[in-house]
């Protein structure tokens, strides 16, 4: 069943005047959102009230998330599968949580973490426990993002030290390339004439000849 990115219908599941929404985020267009979608369906979130972003969680500049926030009103209920689907930036997650709870007046349920259900945290102790759990989970989400980037950087550096080739592998030059490159460097032939002899582009000859 198709997810509507921009809700066009006001038909929603209502408990009193409470509208139920769901938010899904995957980091790239290639990633599959089925796991999150199934969880929201099992929570009885109406299909037309599910908002989907295929975008990095480094900030909240996401088109469907913005539409969702504009659409929700006080008393509405928002489901997300896990805290890192909301975002991966520790400070911004906490800020958005505050905006949604305090300013918009909506409730949030994190399906993978039952303690993060603001419907159950209306008393002082419940709110305190929710805040503590949220801060811990937000920190873990951002720390994992940083760890992934660090591991990637370390892997690239290790590959460089091994002499591994990074990026697209260059094609070999035609026979006689090195001789013509040296001749060009001596000023005995023009780069265009050398490229014509080798039947390669002028820019390719210049780029590769400068490395010889």
Features:
212 residues, alpha/beta, Rossmann fold, 2 domains, five-stranded mixed β-sheet, elongated, disordered N terminus
Distance N terminus to C terminus? 58 Å
> Element order, helices and strands?
EEHEHEHHEHHHH
Total domain modules: 2
Classify the secondary structure makeup into a structural class: alpha/beta
Q: Name the poorly predicted regions.
A: 1-15
Largest sheet: 5 strands, mixed
Q: Total helix count? A: 8
Q: Mean of the pLDDT scores?
A: 80
Shape: elongated
Helix content: 40-55%
Instruction: Specify the CATH class of the largest domain.
Output: Alpha Beta
Q: If classified by CATH, what would the architecture of the largest domain be?
A: 3-Layer(aba) Sandwich
Number of strands: 5
Beta-strand fraction estimate: 5-15%
> What would the CATH topology of the largest domain be?
Rossmann fold
| CATH level 4 superfamily of the largest domain | Resolvase, N-terminal catalytic domain
How big is the Rg? 27 Å
